[in-house]
Amino acid sequence: MAASASGAAAAAASSAAAAGSDTNFDVEYVRVFHDAENCHFQWATVSGGVIHDAVVRASLAAVIGPERALTKDILRIMSKTWVMPVDDSREGGRIYRPNPRLKNDFIDLQVDMPNPGSKPDAVDTYLKGKIGNEIQMLNTFFRPGGPMDRRSVMFVLITGDRDFAHEINLIVREGYSFVLIHNGNLRGSIPHLIPPNHCLPIWTDIVTGRWTVDVLRPTQQTQPLGFDASQLQPKSEAYAALHKLCLENVQLQPSPRGTDVQFGIRTNVMLESPAVIVRYTTNKWSTHTDVPAIKLLEKQTELTSYFVASTSLPQTTEEMEFCICCTAAGTEHWHK
């Protein structure tokens, strides 16, 4: 027997938009400001190019949607616009600095690595000044109501420090797109103007290679019944936040009736009163069955909600195909 994600039923809902996408504008300019003292490279196992690409594409996906993020020419929109102050004179701060291999990668990618000095809070002070100057300069070209949409400029701040609350609020208030990437240990409250799916706790996963651009690509998977498919969507937290919902795991257990199947599903926590179902067929979609999922509050996170749906298949079942759907505010969101 085989269980597969269905293309047939989900095709009817192909018009559902990707999470975070907005067809009214596109991101054409990216500005990255990196607090490497807070989000550092101590555990980095991947190249500077991988880190650079993952940061920009994850941020783009939060603003314009995963599909468009994957097609962007990163080097065109990123020329000399990543600022990462580095104090090479501080012997005690080695873990905060990229190693020589990473540093050479960043030089090749035209990352700006100025020396901010060794005074307390020198890095934060330098970045705050650069952000303020950048906004002032951009405001002369991107005027409200003018031909150039301010949302086409995306600011990305990489930090886990609440000291940048003023700068974040200024960026958002001026109408620019904004994404915050942190290491999962964000200190203090996040400014309320940031949507949860624009606040990504993925820095450590990026530098260790656990978060890659593959998380942005829709998946279609086939596994034999009886196989514990808990690895089907290992990046479900970030994937669900970006795509509105995803399949996290499938558990299959033999039973006297045949096979018991349990589906674990995550949805974007911002969805209003979501109703989640699993739609499956055992006869190539001649008919289908909808199984409602229930929400488990104990597995809810800052970014996602968790649902479980269960069903039983008779012993005569040879094949099962399925897809998942979340309905919120009158809109259906499908994942196949």
Summarize the structure.
With 336 residues, this protein is α/β, with parallel strands linked by helices. It has helices at 8-11, 48-64, 66-71, 74-77, 100-108, 122-139, 165-173, 203-207, 236-243; strands spanning 2-5, 29-34, 82-83, 153-158, 177-181, 199-200, 222-224, 245-255, 258-268, 275-281, 289-292, 294-295, 304-314, 319-328, 331-335. Strands 1, 7, 10, 11, 14 and 15 form a 6-stranded mixed beta sheet that branches.
Polypeptide structure, described:
- The protein is an alpha/beta fold.
- The chain has helices at residues 8-11, 48-64, 66-71, 74-77, 100-108, 122-139, 165-173, 203-207, 236-243, and strands spanning 2-5, 29-34, 82-83, 153-158, 177-181, 199-200, 222-224, 245-255, 258-268, 275-281, 289-292, 294-295, 304-314, 319-328, 331-335.
- The strands form 3 sheets. Strands 1, 7, 10, 11, 14 and 15 form a 6-stranded mixed beta sheet that branches.
- Helix 7 (165-173) links the parallel strand 4 and strand 5 (177-181).
- The longest helix is centred in the middle third of the chain and has 18 residues, at 122-139.
- It is elongated.
- Mean pLDDT is 79; it is low at 1-22 and 220-234.
